[in-house]
Amino acid sequence: MTIDLKGKQVEAFRDALLSGFPGWTDLDELVEFEFDKGLQAIAGPGNTEAVALEVVRWARKHGALDALLAAALRRRPNNPELRRFAYEVVLTSDAGPAPQLEAIALPSVPFENAAAWRARMAAAERCVCRIEVHHKGAWLGIASGALIGSDVVLTNAHVVIDIGPLPARAQFDYAIDAGGAETAGPAIDLVAAPVAQDVDLDVAVLRLAQPVAAGGARGWLAPVRHRFATGEPLLILQHPGADRLKICVGSVTRATPQRVSYTTNTARGSSGSPCFTMAWQLVALHSTGDTGGNSGIPAGAILDALAALSPGALPS
Question: Of 82, 161, 163, 303, whose CB neighbour count within 10 A is largest?
Fold first, then answer.
């Protein structure tokens, strides 16, 4: 069964093809050598954008989207646009990819035991909170945070600035359950002074007025150093628009020691959200988002900053 394309993914596939095969000759060689077809017969005359679009349409009509993408990746294995598109379409498609595409597109994503994977996701959800401030008689959500100890929450330094002098708290389990019912767990006051913060890196650790669960029964997340690969999946648990807990999946576009950029969707209120690998490892903290894309702070940079600022900020 071939993958399916949703919304703007037709355009994205066309653009990814053009990034690896920018000229008529490049595209002609792709379809001739891989499909024994002449480009003229598939696309006819036109500029390269129009021709590439016709190639995608032809593959879609003949159930060959997987084969076209796999062929493009075989011939341009290091092209970041093709790899990023392959990750995204495999993760968002209702149909499973053909084996040859899966082997090429997701080599770094191992098979997982489904029950264990769901359990890790549920455990991670319990460690994400909505950060709220008390203003004009009501508690208003302004950001997200991640529990990294029984009584400490990781978020952005700019969130601390947004809180300002207002009373603040961490609201856990602010979500919608499988039956569609709204849920809300403990809401615990945040101590005003951060345990540690690095404004330039945009990282802060806030202390709760009390542990979120007796004996640490809720558990907490542990940031993990990670070497990001362009195109690898990145999951974010977040409170976009200060709404109830949501998850979104995208992929890494660029990474440096201090910053990782990705296509995972976020919104105002998502600042301070934890970013995960497909194995539910906490590898980054979402920081900013704009029309140019979203970005966060890699866990390695966070660990280095906290070790320098406050060695006791993280549980040993």
Answer: 82
CA pair distance 231, 86, nearest whole angstrom: 8
Structure-block tokens of residue 194: 């951060």
Whether the CB-CB separation of 173 and 184 falls below 8 Å is answered with: yes
Judging by beta carbons within 10 Å of its beta carbon (0-12, 13-18, 19+), is residue 10 exposed, middle or buried?
middle
| Calpha distance 35→316 (Å, rounded) | 57
Angle at 204 between CA 201 and CA 206, to 5 degrees: 180
Across 89-102, average pLDDT: 70
SS3 assignment, position 96: coil
Going through the chain in order, the beta strands assigned E by DSSP cover 128-135, 138-149, 152-155, 168-172, 175-176, 182-183, 187-189, 196-198, 203-207, 233-238, 246-255, 260-262, 274-276, 282-290, 293-298
Q: How confident is the model at residue 100 (pLDDT cuts 50, 70, 90)?
A: low
CA quadruple 159, 163, 167, 172: dihedral sign: negative
Arithmetic mean of pLDDT, 144-153: 95
Report the predicted TM-score, pTM, of the whole model to 2 decimal places.
0.72
User: With contact defined as beta carbons under 8 Å apart, do 303 and 225 qualify?
Assistant: yes
Q: Give first-to-last CA distance, the chain, whole Å.
A: 48
Instruction: Read off the DSSP letter of residue 202.
Output: T
Quote the pLDDT of residue 35. Answer: 92
